[in-house]
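Lab notebook: predicted structure, single chain.

Context: the supervisor wants predicted structures on file for every construct in the current expression panel, including those that have not yet been purified. This is the next one on the list. No modifications to the sequence; it matches the entry in the shared construct table.
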Amino acid sequence: MFLSRLTLKRSPDVAALGRLLDPKDPGRRMDAQHRLIWSAFAGDPEARRDFLWRDMGGGTFLVLSPRPPGESALFERADATPFAPDLAAGDRLAFVLRANATRTVTEPDGRKRHRDVVMEALHATPKGARAPVRLERAQEAGRRWLEGQGARAGFRVTEAGVTAYAVAEPPGQGARRPRFGIIDLEGLIEVTDPAAFLARLAQGFGRAKAFGCGLMLIRRA
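Prediction complete. Output recorded below exactly as produced.
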């Protein structure tokens, strides 16, 4: 795996595309960034979305991928470094994670649906009264979701806090228009199964990975 820093070029020709590459509307910006990151992997005709990415602001993105990004007319040369943390059970790591946190349920008709854990936690609260309690509900639901992820992915949550929650609406057509929640979590975890944890890091956490969710950034605590 490679962890790469991609930075938009400051050249006049790229700057002229500023409104297209960085729209003011959050949903359109997310869609534009999704396409931007693809441009750094477009040289491989067999490419599929096997990378994770996160918007770091200011035209900079972090990308975790099984191969380094290629040349792109829109980005400076990628700063790519091998990503192979040497972890052992008991290691404590600080983390930040932007995720679309959902749980999968089977409806009476047999279809599977993915329910946003924060919206589920807010369901019993009248819509007009949700704003004051949104972050509190997100804290509770986000930690429970992360603990469930850890039980399957080789880590234990020791501290976790939610710094933000928002609903994203990238462009789409009619009923197919995507709409999903994005939760920002940070805190401390303890590695319990290094192999399982590293495998899951590469796969990402939650859904909406094409739109900049799922990449957990870690450092030793």
